[in-house]
Amino acid sequence: MIQLLNPKTISAPNGTYSHGVLVTEASKFLVISGQVAIKSDGTVSDSLIEQCEVVWGNIVAILEESGMSIKNLIKINSYLTNPQQIKTFIEIRAKYLQGHCPASTLIVVSALADPRFLIEIEGYASI
Fold first, then answer.
1. Which CATH code of 3.30.1330.40, 3.40.309.10, 2.60.40.10, 1.10.150.130 fits the domain covering 2-126?
2. What is the pLDDT of residues 42-99, one digit of tens each?
3. In what order do the strands lie in the sheet with 119-126?
4. What is the pTM of this model?
5. CB burial class (10 A; 0-12, 13-18, 19+) of residue 37?
6. Quick check: 23 and 120 in contact, CB under 8 A?
7. For 35, phi and psi rounded to 5 degrees?
8. Are 91 and 98 spatial neighbours (Cβ–Cβ below 8 Å)?
């Protein structure tokens, strides 16, 4: 069972995330490696929107392969290379999370492993 934790004694989350996630029972625990926007044909778009769609599509595919869904995500760590693109990232993240609010960290970095990458997301899921 997954319980989202947002104590009333601290500030409310200012987005689609929870301050904590408690997993009280788990028969499966999934660790998702950092996903970048390499399409199945090996190409990388220079558009953040397209990169986000590829990355989230990868995460959904990995979750489904394990018998899970977005609702099983308990933590995501997101890395962006441009702080001006945070709003766009948050809008796309909300579309994929469909109201689910896992624990979340968003970090702006100067670069990722390949200069073409604008975003990378890693995650944890449990069922």
1. 3.30.1330.40
2. 999 999 999 999 999 999 999 999 999 999 999 999 999 999 999 999 999 999 999 9
3. 29-35, 119-126, 73-80, 103-108
4. 0.89
5. buried
6. no
7. -100, 130
8. no
Paired strand residues for 82: none
Q: Which amino acid is at 29?
A: F
> What distance in Å separates the CA atoms of residue 51 and residue 96, rounded to the nearest whole number?
14
Structure tokens at 102: 């896992």
What is the Cα–Cα distance from 42 to 69, expressed in whole angstroms? 25
- The strand pairing partners of 120, in sequence order, are 79
Residue 49 backbone dihedrals phi, psi, to 5 degrees: -60, -50
